[in-house]
Structure formats: structure tokens, C-alpha cells
Specification:
Dihydrodipicolinate Reductase, domain 2; Oxidoreductase; Rossmann fold; alpha/beta; 33% helix; nucleotide binding; 2 domains; 9-stranded mixed sheet
């Protein structure tokens, strides 16, 4: 199936070789408003067909699917035009920067029987699928908290805050693992080099008492990608910055016991073994492309469909509102 890639910036360029080498992609068209980027792509990848403008992509009957890797402010208008032209759409995260626009895209894709997918790439790692299985099998017991950090030095964005740029990865992953929306969001942040937050802390509260804390930063001297999941039976650590042993399962935790004649429960601590877990090593971006193409050919919804993207935008918008209100809790129920 021929595919068109819109946007040849940092993320779009990473898509090009993966698309060209993918068995389900039978031709690649590219378009970027910057002609210099298009010329560089042709030099590096001569088989790519460069389109002169976006309208020519939309009017090309050979192109059935469009991948949009542009700044978020342009997502809605570009995706809307593509869906109205009968194209399936894969969007770089986030889906849009407004809930009402995200909802309209979801409704439009449904009305046209087209696939709308968001590139929540964290969900396409083998580690994410392994974590999902551990939670569903009750290996961790009842999950009580998530504690995540995603930090590095830059890249400071001019159009979105660090919450929209980085925290969305954790929001999407937690949504995937729990399958439910938080009912409250609170967030604080600070901006030192511009008008948008470069460092932030977000707390998601869920109906059953689960709490998720997410710390994100563009101002860290070291790169961190770590998620800790606390369960009543066991605990899990996912460290995406190590080359090996990314997933570790700990037989550690807190136990409470009540003895006759004792007013307060006795607290004991388990300090058991640590088990290193293996997982599928398929490159996430390749898995994203496969999911998009297979969802189209098989006539099914992709894992990270428009509804998932919409939920994430709702959380992002609530977090943004909370930051502006200096940490006031925002209800999502």
C-alpha cells in the first residue's frame, strides 16, 4: 500500500527508512513545506517520491494512508483534510492540542469508516506488552501506584510545554495498562527560559484509589526514563535507559498483620528476590507502522486509535488547566 509522509522534521525523518524497508509499504510519498528538507530526503533516499504540495497528496488516488509528523498545532487541519479526502491517518502524538478538535477527528474517522491512529510509541515496546501481561495475570497483585520520571536536557519546545511533549508518553502507557481514565488531575510546573513549562509534576488519581505520579523535565543533566509500579504482591521497575535488564520484578513490599491484644496493625517489610524479565525487542517505530498497516488491511481498530488519543488529550488539557491554577485539582469524571 502506498503511503504519504507529511513532515520531514526530526521525527518524520526517522520514519523514512523504516517505511521504505517495511514489507507492507509499497511506495513512499513525502511532503514538507520546507523545500530544503525535501531535497535532502531525495538525496538520501532516491526512491522517495516528493509531492509539490499537500493537495497533490490528497488528490492522489494511489495514496490510501497518510502519516502526519508535524507540529501539533497543524494536526487538526491536516488530519481533517486527509480524512475528508478518504485517507487513513496516523498522527504523531498528541492527536491534537484541543479536546473538541480531537473529538471531531474521532467522529469524522468513524463516519467515513477510516482508521485514525496516534503514534503513542511507548505502547509499542515489548516491555509495555510484558508489563500489561503481568498486571492482567495479577503477578503484581492489586496495583496501587505508578511513579514515573522522563527527563533530559532539552529539547525545549516553543509551541508546547514539557507536559504535552513528554508526560503524554506516561499518560498513554498508564491508560494502556489500566484501561481507565483518571477522575482527577493535578499538576504544577515552572518556566525559566520561556513562557511554557520546562519542568512539571502531574498526579493522576483513579476511582479505585490508584495514584500515578509523573515527573517530566527538559532541564535534567542526565537522561531518565523510568517507571515504577507498586503492587500489593510485587513491584516492577522499567528502566528504558539501560541497554539490558530493562524490566525487573521485585518480591518486595509492605505487609500488615493484626495480632490479638495489639491495637495497631504490625507493619513488616518483604525484601525478597529480584527477577530480570525478558521481553520482545522489536523496534517500536517498526511496530507502529505494522499496526497501522495491518489495521487498515484487516479492517480493525488499531491499538492506539483515535479514542485513545482523545483520552490522552483530555488528560493533557486538564493538566494544563491545573498548572495555570497552581495545582488545583481538575475533575475528569
Amino acid at each position: 500500500m502506498p503511503v504519504a509522509l507529511i513532515g520531514l522534521g526530526h521525527w518524520g525523518c526517522r520514519f523514512v527508512p523504516k517505511l521504505l524497508n517495511h514489507a507492507l509499504v509499497k511506495g513512499l510519498y513525502c511532503y514538507d513545506i520546507d523545500d530544503a528538507r525535501s531535497r535532502r530526503i531525495i538525496q538520501d533516499f532516491p526512491s522517495v517520491k516528493v509531492s509539490s504540495d499537500y493537495e497533490s497528496v490528497l488528490n492522489n488516488p494511489e495514496i490510501e494512508a497518510v502519516i502526519i509528523a508535524t507540529p501539533v498545532a497543524s494536526h487538526y487541519s491536516l488530519a481533517k483534510k486527509a480524512l475528508e479526502s478518504g485517507k487513513h491517518v496516523l498522527l504523531e502524538k498528541p492527536l491534537t492540542n484541543r479536546v473538541d478538535e480531537a473529538q471531531h477527528l474521532v467522529d469524522l474517522a468513524s463516519a467515513r469508516a477510516l482508521k485514525l491512529m496516534v503514534d503513542h510509541i511507548t505502547l509499542y515496546s515489548g516491555a509495555a506488552r510484558s508489563i500489561k501481561r503481568l498486571i492482567e495475570s495479577q503477578t503484581l497483585g492489586k496495583v496501587i501506584y505508578f511513579d514515573a520520571v522522563r527527563a533530559n536536557l532539552g529539547l525545549i519546545q516553543s509551541d508546547v510545554s514539557v507536559v504535552w511533549d513528554l508526560a503524554i508518553h506516561e499518560f498513554a502507557l498508564i491508560d494502556y495498562l489500566l484501561g481507565e481514565m483518571p477522575n482527577r488531575v493535578s499538576a504544577t510546573g515552572a518556566a525559566f527560559y520561556g513562557s511554557l513549562e520546562e519542568i512539571a509534576d502531574v498526579t493522576l488519581s483513579f476511582e479505585g484509589g490508584i495514584v500515578a505520579h509523573v515527573h517530566v523535565s527538559w532541564l535534567s543533566p542526565v537522561k531518565k526514563r523510568k517507571l515504577i509500579i507498586g503492587g500489593m504482591k510485587k513491584m516492577l521497575v522499567f528502566d528504558d535507559m539501560v541497554s539490558d535488564k530493562k524490566l525487573k520484578l521485585f518480591d518486595r513490599g509492605v505487609d500488615l498483620s493484626v495480632n490479638a491484644g495489639v491495637d495497631k496493625p504490625i507493619v513488616t517489610y518483604r525484601d525478597g528476590d529480584c527477577q530480570v524479565l525478558d521481553h520482545d525487542r522489536t523496534e517500536p517505530m517498526v511496530a507502529v507502522i505494522s499496526e497501522f498497516m495491518k489495521a487498515i488491511s484487516e479492517g480493525r481498530e488499531p491499538l492506539t486509535n483515535g479514542a485513545v488519543g482523545l483520552r490522552c488529550v483530555r488528560i493533557l488539557q486538564a493538566a494544563e488547566k491545573s498548572v495555570k491554577q497552581r495545582g488545583t485539582s481538575v475533575n475528569l469524571g
